[in-house]
Amino acid sequence: MKASEKIKGIVFAYDTNGEYDMVKELGVEWMRLNICFPWKDKMFGTLSEEYIAARQEIRDTHAKGFQVMPATPPLGGFTYDEEEGKTCWHEHFPEFVGKKGTEEFYENVRESMRFICEDLGEAAGIYWQCMNEIDIPVFSNDYPDDILADTARACAEGIRRGNPEARCGINISCYNENAVRIADLVYREGHSFYYMGVDQYFGSWQPGDAENWIGVLDALYERYRLPVLANEWGYSSAGELAEEMPDPALVPKGLPEVCYVKKWFHEAKGGHTPEVQADYFRRGHRIFAQHPHCLGSFMFCWRDAYHCYHCGASDCPAECYWGIVDTQCRPKPAYYAVKEALAEYYKDE
Fold first, then answer.
1. Do the beta carbons of residue 54 and residue 112 sit within 8 Å?
2. Could you say which DSSP state residue 259 is in?
3. CB 105: neighbour CB atoms within 10 A?
4. Please, which of 39, 149, 205, 317 could form a disulfide with 201 given CB 3.0 to 4.6 Å?
5. Cis before residue 80, ω within 30 degrees of 0?
6. In what order do the strands lie in the sheet with 167-169?
7. What is the pTM of this model?
8. pLDDT of the chain along its 349 residues, tens only?
9. Mind spelling out the 3-state secondary structure of 150-211?
10. Do 244 and 265 contact (CB within 8 A), yes or no?
11. Angle at 238 between CA 328 and CA 131, to 5 degrees
């Protein structure tokens, strides 16, 4: 794949407010946006307000000249519940979809995804992300591996009912033994996927630095023989380094340990600063542009978050400082570094 043909994307989060011109000035061509389950009462029933809003954002984004990669819902997620005042599990597929693990459930998932694909029409790009990080409890809870894998496969099968040319993939949360074990189930014989996707946050969620991406891209291509997409990658621009890990028995279920201590357990050389973040993005883009088996990437993310969706705190490094602009949409050094990198590295030799 030529460098100029690769995906130059960003995850359009958090708390966005239509900053399309600023994003376009970067040289970004793709945005990843979430789409939720469509109906609130029954299959092919009344569309939910959440779905209508997500659909409109995808249509608006496409109308502004961007390609959109829709991300379909995982089985659920651990997120902060304001009413409960704590992190709770929230299901994303209503009970009327069927009992998970049954053919009724998988067929309804297929038909739901077919509907979404046809409903979005040309507003959806050719690339789709099926579910999200199904290898970690944050998005899988304690569901068995076979249900996670078969739901992801059903998602892709349904999308391709709506658009046989769609290019689907999953995104494992990182490259480790557990992640590839589940990915092996997803990508077993008879799958409908075009690419292998992976998220990595070297220096934040995992040890290492941007250069560690090379080994991940090589290993995943060797294992699955499919082009590899970096569905999420980035570096937090703030957060202190913890001196020790907390006692796992003290951390509530579904809450990342980073949220519990409000500190990172990993950092790249120089720590978590806006300047280190900028250099990280610059080096990462050079890797993605040059790697022969990489489809491209979606940076995480556009804008800092007002609150961490895991724990609700406004100062939690787990989710609050990933943006290349701050909460007021003021560019960080990373904004300018990304702009330069996209212009410099994605040229054909």
1. no
2. H
3. 18
4. 205
5. no
6. 167-169, 127-129, 67-71, 30-34, 7-11, 294-299, 228-233, 196-200, 171-172
7. 0.96
8. 899 999 999 999 998 888 999 999 999 999 999 999 999 999 999 999 999 999 999 999 999 999 999 999 999 999 999 999 999 999 999 999 999 999 999 999 999 999 999 999 999 999 999 999 999 999 999 999 999 999 999 999 999 999 999 999 999 999 999 999 999 999 999 999 999 999 999 999 999 999 999 999 999 999 999 999 999 999 999 999 999 999 999 999 999 999 999 999 999 999 999 999 999 999 999 999 999 999 999 999 999 999 999 999 999 999 999 999 999 999 999 999 999 999 999 998 7
9. HHHHHHHHHHHHHCCCCEEECEECCCCHHHHHHHHHHCCCCCCCCCEEEEECECCCECCCHH
10. no
11. 80
| Total count of residues recorded for the chain | 349
CA 338 – CA 298 distance, rounded (Å): 12
Q: Which residues contact 32 (CB under 8 A, 6 or more apart)?
A: 9, 10, 11, 12, 68, 69, 70, 71, 129, 231, 298
Q: Tell the residue number behind the tokens 């560019």, with chain if given.
A: 331
Q: Distance (Å, rounded) from C-alpha 48 to C-alpha 68?
A: 21
Residue 169 carries which side chain, given as an amino acid letter? Answer: G
Structure tokens at 117: 């694909």
Residues 74, 133: contact at Cβ < 8 Å? yes
Rg (CA), the chain: 19
Q: For residue 189, which of 230, 225, 139 has the smallest C-alpha distance?
A: 225
Helix (H) or strand (E) holding 25: helix 20-26
Would strands 196-200 and 171-172 be described as parallel, antiparallel, or unpaired?
parallel
